[in-house]
Structures are given as structure tokens and as C-alpha cells.
Amino acid sequence: MAAILAENGDLSPTDVATAAILGDPFAAELLARSGRLIGTTIAALSNAFNPSLIVLGGPWAQHSDILLAAIREEVYRRSHPLVSRDLKIVRSQISGTATLSGLALSILDEIFAPYPLARWVKHGSPLTHPVPVAAIAGAKRDLVARAAPRLPPGEPVVKRKQGAS
After folding, report:
1. pLDDT at 21
2. For the chain, how many structural domains are there in total?
3. Which CATH number characterizes residue 44's domain?
4. Which of 10, 17, 119, 153 could link 64 by a cystine bridge, Cβ 3.0 to 4.6 Å?
5. Is 88 inside a domain boundary?
6. Neighbour count for residue 148 (Cβ, 10 Å)
7. Where in the sequence is the domain holding 68, given as residue range(s)?
């Protein structure tokens, strides 16, 4: 891992997982310790909500069997037997798009919940209701502001005339 860090300046989840697979004791211990900490938190949540399925996503869960095993071990060890009896802990099958899919589902749930639905139905569409229209306009302003080039402090702003190259 030291060679990869020296060469690239940082380590990716894949780098750490690969190092652990190749026998790097530090990488293996790092993943196992991280898995135990994550598992402790998930166990507390499992005891509170009693889920039947926990889906883990992200690059760490996708690339590391050590991390996944440590999470499972800790969750099963710390959860109530009735909670962990039928509990499955699996990797996400949609890894890279899981966040976007979850966000889209959350938005759909919010739009089609009974109260918001009643508010926008009379407008014909959520896109014509004033609240979503204002939210979309604000999001567009944020995107434009983030896309604007950032100048160092004290740098003069030079505006070019249209048509000039």
C-alpha cells in the first residue's frame, strides 16, 4: 500500500481491498476493524427496526470480503436472536447507481404521498405547482453557480465582448 500511496498520492477502496487480499496485514486489520464498527452501528439499528434485509453499497462493500464478513459477524453477534434469525446482509447489486436510485424513489414517494399529491393535482402536474417550480429554479441556480469558474482571490474579472474570440 505504501508504494501505491507514494505513486498516486492516495488510496482507493480497491487498493486497500487488493492489498488485504494479497496479504497486507495492516489493510486486512483496517478492513476488519472498520467492519466491526459499522456492524456495531447496524446491529443497534437492526435491534430497533427489525429489518429482514440489509443491503450494503459503496466501493468498500463491493470490493472487500473482509469488511463484509466483519460487518455480518458483528451484526449477528450483537443483534437480538429474534432480529438476526432471518436477517440477510448482502451487497448491493446496483452498486454505483444505488444512491441515485434511492434518491429517485424517495422523490417519487414524496411527490405521490397523499398530502403533496392533493396539493399539486389541481395544478395538473408537480412541475406547475409553485413549490416544485421554486425548488427546480433554486437547483438550477446552484448548478450554474457551481459550474462558474473560480478565480483566485484578488484576480480581476475580465469580461469579453460577445463575438470576440
Report:
1. 87
2. 1
3. 3.30.420.40
4. 17
5. yes
6. 8
7. 2-94
